[in-house]
Specification:
This protein has 169 residues and is an alpha/beta fold. It is 36% helix and 17% strand.
């Protein structure tokens, strides 16, 4: 219901109600994937805002749990995705194979996507490889900015579908 509220009230906060990005890490990545790719919403009877469609234009997941039914919800005209996973130290409930499966789903549906895989890191690697300036990986940072330019501003040619393998010790 929070996203429905945001969509209904985005303009009063300086946002664009037609351009919402769903993001999250770990369990939040699972929730944000549900928000981005769920087609049928059963709003509670007392919900003030009940849009027919949520205007999600992009999805970012940092080590999200992605059960098979989430992948089955992805449609050909759905939001582009950017996903990150750790390797050897990743949480057992969020193996990188889930990201690879999501990446394959995006490819099959011809949806722009990127996956970042950091074998030497564990759960939610984005905070170290993407967000922290001292440990930022240049290729990951550039790809994420390409994603943001695409979904936020409609800029650039969507050339995705690849996996960025970050080499770290």
């Amino acid at each position: 219901m929070a996203v429905a509220y945001l969509q209904a009230n985005a303009a009063q906060y300086g946002g664009d109600p037609s351009r919402i990005i769903a993001t999250g890490a770990s369990a939040g990545g699972y929730i944000s994937a549900q928000i981005a790719y769920n087609k049928k919403w059963n709003w509670p009877a007392d919900a003030k805002y009940k849009p027919d469609k949520l205007n999600i234009v992009g999805w970012f997941g940092n080590s999200p749990y992605l059960p098979r039914y989430v992948l089955r919800n992805v449609g050909a005209k759905d939001a582009p995705g950017f996903v990150m996973y750790g390797g050897k130290k990743e949480h057992p409930a969020t193996p990188a194979q889930q990201g690879r499966d999501m990446q394959e789903t995006f490819k099959q549906k011809q949806i722009w996507s990127k996956m970042v895989f950091i074998d030497s890191m564990g759960h939610i690697p984005g905070k170290r490889v993407l967000f922290a300036p001292r440990t930022r990986d240049k290729a990951t940072y550039e790809a994420f900015n390409q994603f943001l330019d695409l979904v936020c501003y409609g800029k650039g040619e969507p050339k995705g579908g690849d996996v960025i393998e970050v080499k770290r010790n």
